[in-house]
Amino acid sequence: MKEIVILGAGYAGLRAARELRGLPGARITLVNRHAFHYESTELHTVAAGTREPEVISFDIRQSMGPTVEFKQDSVTRIDPEQKKVFLQAGPVPLSYDYLVVALGFESEDFGIDGAREHAMPLVDIDSALAVRQHFEARLAGFKTTRDENDLRLIVCGAGFTSIELLGEFAYRMPSLIELHDLPKDKVQLIALESAPKLLPMFDAHLVDYAVGYLAARGVQIHTSTTIKKVVPGGVMSEDRTFDANTIIWTTGVRGSHVIADSGFVAKRNRVNVEPTLALKDHPEVFFIGDDSAVLDPAGGRPWPTTAQLAIAEATHAAANIKAHIAGKPIADFKFVSKGTVCSLGPSSGIAQLSGRGSMKFEGHGVAFLKKLVENGSLLEEAGFAKMLDNFS
Ligand code: NAD
Q1: Residue 366: which pLDDT band, with cuts at 50, 70 and 90?
Q2: Engineering a disulfide at 191: which of 19, 46, 168, 221 sits with its beta carbon 3.0 to 4.6 angstroms away?
Q3: Residue 297 has what pLDDT?
Q4: Closest of 329, 262, 324 to residue 291, by C-alpha
Q5: Atom 24 (ligand 1): residue with closest C-alpha?
Q6: Quick one: which atom of ligand 1 is closest to the CA of 107?
Q7: What is the DSSP letter of 184?
Q8: pLDDT number for residue 388
Q9: How does pLDDT run across 251-284, given as a tens digit for each residue?
């Protein structure tokens, strides 16, 4: 019996388990910190309060069925020499013949002073709910405090997560303003971005559309503004301090700390894998999703991490494990992106799809496209009813 252990039940781990379950002569063990999977590309909706956590999450055991052994526990360390995985609660380490590491991402603060202490990350359901509760409490409290910083929200960085979050907040603000009877002209949604231009992966006219859409809804984006320090109630650039009582940190992500704790050679906790997605010295150990750096031969740099890439890598790693067990040759990973979509609240967005030529979309309907392009996974993993929930 081959022991196949999969660490993490995000997009990548769940897909790998799905591809491998039922494999004759193999036992599949899936380990995850929570008993539920959540759609990490939709966390901004929970943070802004446009969706409840239940809508973007589902039970892992139920979706995997009986052919996958699910263990709810936190991975603390991997020992590739002993072929063992150590768990926080599990008293006995797991042994494996094949290992798939898909432990996902953590917030990257680049060591900026005060970021960890005074800004809120957006990395999982708990942190998304914390953002929502914190901001809503500040807005509700304004009638007592009269502190205008309670009406200000700063998002640090203006990458994908930030823009999608601001789009969602811009949509929600009118109802919050009405609910708490707030002075509309004093409410501010602000983003601080070090780069001179936003979202470089999109054509300029799509970026202009996104910026115009957000600006029309009161969002201020300060480009060429590098964050140097975060203090309680303020974010400092080289020459200015921006005040707000809600500060959210979205300047990028890195892979799981388990990678550093296990001593793997990695950059920002992303391990350089072979084109097969396995380690050079350990062909039985695969790193996928946000924990791996896979070279895009055309660009000469690792592919940027997305749900789409994670799912493709998981499918490939599972196929290579099956081939290896069967004594067949394993293959190199090839990736063709379907394109990129960025939502601007529930009813707008921008999209640049690949295919025959490049297709570009903006406005209404793009939020719907995002679900189709980024993760058809909800339909496959959790069923039709859950997918319909997600469209609501
Ligand atoms: P990101 O890398 O997309 O954006 C981070 C932004 O922060 C960048 O624009 C960067 O220039 C800026 N930044 C970094 N340090 C800064 C500083 N000191 N001061 C000011 N600005 C600074 O990261 P993210 O938004 O956290 O997203 C994480 C990953 O998830 C990315 O790889 C992203 O592509 C992916 N993602 C994709 C989607 C989608 O495809 N719809 C949605 C969300 C996230």
Answers
A1: confident
A2: 221
A3: 85
A4: 262
A5: 252
A6: 26
A7: G
A8: 47
A9: 999 999 999 999 999 999 999 999 999 999 999 9
- Amino acid code (one letter) for 391: F
Q: What CATH code is carried by the domain that includes residue 192?
A: 3.50.50.60
DSSP 245-264: SEEEE-S-EEE-HHHHHTT-
Residues involved in catalysis: 164
State how many domains the chain has: 2
Residue 345 in contact with residue 170, Cβ under 8 Å? yes
Q: Compute, in angstroms, the gap from residue 253 CA to the centroid of ligand 1.
A: 7
| Residue 86 shares a structural domain with residue 199 | no
Whether 264 maps to a domain, the answer reads yes
Considering the domain architecture, whether residues 223 and 315 belong to the same structural domain is answered as no
d(CA 188, CA 24): 58
Q: Name the closest-CA residue to atom 23, ligand 1.
A: 252
Local confidence band at 96 (pLDDT 50, 70, 90 cut-offs) = very high
> Looking at residue 149, what DSSP letter applies?
G
Ligand 1: nearest atom to the Cα of 226: 19
CATH number of the domain at 330, please. Answer: 3.50.50.100
Q: Is 293 in a helix, a strand, or coil?
A: strand
User: pTM for the whole thing?
Assistant: 0.93
How close is the Cα of 252 to the center of ligand 1, in Å? 4
Nearest CA to ligand 1 atom 33: 160
CA of 89 to the centre of ligand 1 (A): 33
Among the candidates 336, 355, 385, a domain finishes at 336
- Selection from 103, 100, 72 nearest residue 87 by Cα: 72
Enumerate residues lining ligand 1, CB below 6 A. Answer: 41, 110, 112, 157-162, 164, 192-195, 226-227, 250-253, 304-306, 340-342, 374
Q: Which of 186, 220, 249 is the last residue of a domain?
A: 249
